[in-house]
Amino acid sequence: RPQRSVASDLSRASPSDLAWQPTLLMGGGGRTSSFAPSHSLNTSTPFLLGSALASALFACLASHTAVSLSAVAAVASVVLCISAGLRWVVGDPLRDTAAHGFGPRCTALAAAATPAAPKLDNNGSCDSGEPPADLSQEELLLLQYFFAITFRLGDDEAAISSIWCMTGGGKPLPSAPDQLNFTAIRYHLSFVAYATAAICMRTPLLKAQGGAVLGWVMRQLLSPRVFRYCDFYWPADGSPFACRENVMWTGHLLHVATLYEALTGDDKYRQPGGLRLVDGRGREWSSDAEALGLHLAACMRVNAAGGVPCEPGLVFFQCQNHAMCGLRLLEALGGSRVPHGFFGPERRRFLQFATGGMRAVVGTGGLKVVVVTTPQHTEPFCAPFARERAHLEERLASAARAGCETIAGEHRPPGPSPSRVLGSVPFAHLGSDGWDLTYLGWWADSGRLAGELYTLAVQPKVSRGAWGYGEHPSLDSRPPLACCVGLNIPKSAYSAQILPMLRQLGDGSNADRVEAWLRRHFRREAPAQSHQGGGGEGEGGGGEALSCSPEAELRACSSGCGSAGLGPVAGGTADGRTAAERGAKRAPRGCVWLQEGDEWAIGNTANYAMAVAVANGSDLRALHQGGSEQYRAAEAGGVRGVGVSPLDAEVFRCRRGASPGEVEVGLWMGEGGLTEATLWAEGRAVDSLTLLSADG
Question: Does the global pTM surpass 0.90?
């Protein structure tokens, strides 16, 4: 199809759309590029042939019938041969054809830089705006579920394995281990951390509880069970922290570590050696959040797409989100050496690539599932990586010498690299789009970009989706198939995945439809047990051990939120209950979760919880970018170190009181919940209390 000129595309753009660097208009080899939007498909015969073969492969993978591996491999080989010969079929972003891009408006937003934002102050105070909204009863019950499946388990390996039992699927490769696919434990762990932060950020009295969950998640992410697959893909890399790919683990690790500090003010993961692990061979490795952030940024700079591969050579937009969120938080955290805007060039470079070349060319949604680049864990990448890492170190040192709190403008572009874009999967997936756009809004410089992409390419697909009351879905315990685009994803999973996106982007009508469907078919609620110490049916649950002193609980939390002070938890067994139900039995105050097969339930629940928090006022973009300090209201009125015991108390309010030095706190008491609680500040029990209301 004839290409329209850049001038004709720009003649219809507003002045704000033109605010990008001139180099953006050049593709590979200096070729002029077009970013004209297009809603039509190229229907030439080769395109249809390639798409038909790819669709046949995906249908075979997604079917329940037995398909021999050799037959699948044969079909895959044909598809790959056609894709190699006709790269434009699967999308060559360097060509910037109209069908592969989102248009000049989105590309301009991708190139925009944000103004300076204040650093998050670990000793900050509540701003003078409206107080954060109270937590809803649904949020309190969801938090109880997260408490039950994280720090209440302590370090009991049997209990952990009985609940966190997802295999994550595998790959059609010899001796491939589990945890290689998108129901791997690392994703469920991370989603629980993000959902917990989304709820706890509005109620600073839950700062310790949020830190307990995120600290427990960090310990699991650093355990061999979660990252042991690294030796399969990258056996020669040694330290998992040094891998130039694997952002599907390092990205989440950085995101959770920095989010932990944002919630608690504890910078232990940013201290030298703050990230430590022992691999399957008994070797100990260490890093820290800032070093890991610089490492990931250098990996981005040597990649042709501007991202970091998850598996060898495969760049998924989804996982770039979490590396980018971690980099954004490093810029915002108080005490960080990283000034605001430091990683801006890396953010904008990847987004310019994505908006110019990652639009799905088959009408399945918005962003392509994956882009294929040259694997960068090989020897030819060692020197380019070292050069880019040295450049970042010098950029940081230069900012420190100049005393800069903000870095504006572009820096030296990446140098030569062996990385090339080899192609991309032409399909999108609605669940993938939900993952992409939910987190994009947290870290992108432009707050409008996610909404533009949604309106342009995703909303029509959501609006056409069927979320009616006539369906009776069954639980799906299958792990995902070996191919990430096998499309055997339960509707519950991608519905929960898009729900926070819909809430964040203000599509209330579609969000209400999806949420009503999820609640009708999958929401489960466990009632409070007879006594606050009751674990029920031999499940343990901590019992009266949870009523330890506030000081003991604070020590337990600050030392890593292990089992200290939380009581023993008996191991789970194969008793016919799903893992989600076994977790719910450990919540003595009752809880809410989304029921589904073991491979999906925890992640589904976390995504649902995030959507509930966003609907009730949690602003995750403000949290990540440092533009609001409402969630730091634990320091309200000059009262510091406010806390509550027991650790799983149902706190729904903490805000500035009517008088200086006064804090108004809301606790849910009675009806099988708390019968006794202790409020404390600066490590001492509060002895001046005024009961404002006994309702609830």
Answer: no
